[in-house]
């Protein structure tokens, strides 16, 4: 099976709408998700949620571990529960095949070698400001639509996913700076994006300014 065939097979698992909802819920969650919580989140039975969650694990889209959800230990604490989290890695299919990733790496390498980091950050900020689709009430939805998978950590809005993950691994300073500039332009003035990496997620976090 070719890499393209494997990607088609993996993404084909998400053809079921219940599995899509389960995957989105688990992938966006800041912590591991148990079967009961996943079932309640998408409005299905626990047994049906367990079936679909394990299909997502088989496809490599989710990873599984075991822990006691009650927090108790020792005799009488019960058996560890099966919990799920987003699996590492990416799956993408283009029909017909394209190679935007290779072009992105080449462009990033040229920009980094030329020392154009500040120019890239300024361009990213201008690009974000040019599309003011975020206002105070729906910034979370805008970030979610752009693939950031935002979640609240106290009063801080953290981003579970980095839409530029592959490039950020190869060019961390360049791409994270670009991402910060983009979010500075995108976010309304009452929000303050800062470099504050989320473990396994995005390098930027957002919080309300003191005046708001």
UniProtKB/TrEMBL annotation:
Organism superkingdom: Bacteria
Annotated TM spans: none
InterPro entries according to UniProt: ArsR-like_HTH, WH-like_DNA-bd_sf, WH_DNA-bd_sf
Name this polypeptide is given: Helix-turn-helix domain-containing protein
Species the sequence originates in: Streptomyces sirii
